[in-house]
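Morning. Coffee machine broken again, so started the prediction first thing and wrote up yesterday's gels while waiting. Chain of 46 residues, entered below exactly as on the submission form.
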Amino acid sequence: MGFLWFFLGMMTGGCLGVMIMCLFQINRCNYYEQQIRKIEEQIKKK
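Came back before lunch.
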């Protein structure tokens, strides 16, 4: 029975960890895309 709880805890923790890391990666990609748009606007103004 203990192994079952250990396995469920590892699966839950692993899924939550991966989800949090994916959210951070998505946030970083959005930040870089925003920076690229700002640079493109500056180039178009020149």
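The chain has a mean pLDDT of 93. Going to sketch it on the whiteboard this afternoon.
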